[in-house]
Design goal:
Elements: E1 3-9, E2 18-21, H1 30-43, E3 47-51, H2 59-68, E4 74-77, H3 83-87, E5 93-96, H4 99-103, H5 109-121, E6 124-127, H6 130-139, E7 148-150, H7 164-168, H8 175-178, E8 186-191, H9 204-213, E9 217-222, H10 228-239, E10 245-248, H11 253-261, E11 265-268, H12 277-285, E12 289-292, H13 295-298, E13 308-310, H14 313-325, H15 328-344, H16 347-366, E14 375-380
Parallel strand pairs: 2-3, 4-5, 5-6, 6-7, 8-9, 8-11, 9-10, 11-12, 12-13
Antiparallel strand pairs: 1-3, 1-14
Amino acid sequence: MDIVYMSLRSYAGMPHTLTLLSPLAKRGGNYCTIKRIRNHLKSHGYECQLEDPKLFKSRHEMDDILSRDSMGVLIGIHAYRTGAYMKDSNLPYIVILGGTDINEFSKDPEAMTVMTEVVMKAKFVVCFSTTIRSKALSLWPNVCHARLVLIPQAVHTSMSSFNLITYLSSRPEVGCLQSSSQQKPVIFVFIGGIRPVKNPIYLVSTFQEWHARDKRIILLIVGPKLDEQYCTKVFEPAISKHPGIVYIPGLPMEDTHAVMSQSFALVNSSDSEGMCLAILEAMQIGIPVFARNIPGNRAIIEDNVTGFLFDSPQTFLQKAESIVENVDRSLNVTKQAKEYILQHHNLESERKAYTDLLEQCITEIEADNTEIPKLAMSVTINEEYLATHTITQDS
């Protein structure tokens, strides 16, 4: 298990500095979320320092860090992945539920036992959406409702100068760029780590057939291989040597945002999601989103209003072909999607929510302890974001 610890110190009247001691500084997904939270708290007067425990020799070394620095509060992403550590640390903590906690680990009795203890001991439990909060209440009906706090993820995108067409021109799978007609490709991009729950091959055969009829149509899959067995036995055979299907094993976050901005649309074909950051980013950037009709996606997409939901490959093809043939139909959808992001996923709202929550937590702790010299934040970085040049996930 990989955990990143962030120590937050507040010293009145002294300058505040930010020290990053992690090779994950340019990664995406959960790390993007924790980096935003760090920036929020830093702007509120806390000094932040990141440490990567992969550099530690043992669990005892991590424990020594917390003991030496007199940590007072832990904040962790993923109840199961960080929960086993937090619940045994004897420190008060805030846990942020991930989609994997709610949708996958909740099916595993052993994992559920761990998460139940984590949730019941937590000072607060943060949920990204009402869907996650409702599921949490059904899983843990005895938890204090006031302790389940709704804080939607905010979105921040920053694009590099990465040129997607130049990159694709060197790939033989992109027939329309190799032909004399030089037709402009229509690129649907899938962004996520390659593992079963993300189901990156759900639409591969659909795109292969569509590309055979229209050489402009391209499915671009961007993401690191996280499940070697799945990749070897399922993913690689499904996409190997198939015209119209292009795979990039991962890009830096700014390049990923550039790829989004130069694509026709984003595709999400996950079997389950918490709150997919890639979807939110695409909506902010202003490209149409075609997403699997699952609870996590329905929480952030209203069909035909802020995006397009599909129940099957056939439904996807029907909707996607309609938009490709009449691009103007998507303009109002992308406009409303941008407005939705501005209203419900903006940075200032997230900043206020986390700083207020932390202050409330500190106030409650101070009722029992007269001094809180230091605060600590811990976050599990999902395997999806640990590969070199990792891109956005899911939560």
